[in-house]
Amino acid sequence: MGSYQTVLVGTDGSDSSMKAVEQAAAFAAQHGAKLVIATAHFHEVEKGSWARPAAPEKASDRRAEDALGREGYRVHGDAHVYEILHEAGQLARGAGAIDIEERSVIGAPVEALVRLSTEVEAELIVVGDVGLDSTAGRLLGSVPADVARKAKIDILIVHTVD
């Protein structure tokens, strides 16, 4: 592993992904690198549509307003994307990271991380090990294995499962 200026980590708000955020933050702090924290989601809400991006001020349908979270992020499971990123950012600061960017990315997790790594010119992607040792992970693929296959930069897979 060489010198890192930008480290990218993805989170879905789960405990294991937050452990990866914490490890990535500590690593970024040790190397004086910028930390980009990302969460992937499929679509945001637009007036009259449930499939295209929109700004909060364009959401006049009451259902759309309810589906939009703070800062215009879409609801992601039981938590807003904004809340996931905010919590991850707080955790990263607690682990010593100073230069932190929080990003919401539309797309499936693997493709979103790989695409974002190019966009932010990351030299390292940090992912948790969830799914690596499962039967489903071996048969269908897992986020860490798929990122390792598709990314053209260094990957750090951290142990996040007890």
From TrEMBL:
Pfam families: Usp. Residues 4-159 form the UspA domain. InterPro entries: Rossmann-like_a/b/a_fold, Universal_stress_UspA, UspA. Belongs to the universal stress protein A family. This is Universal stress protein.
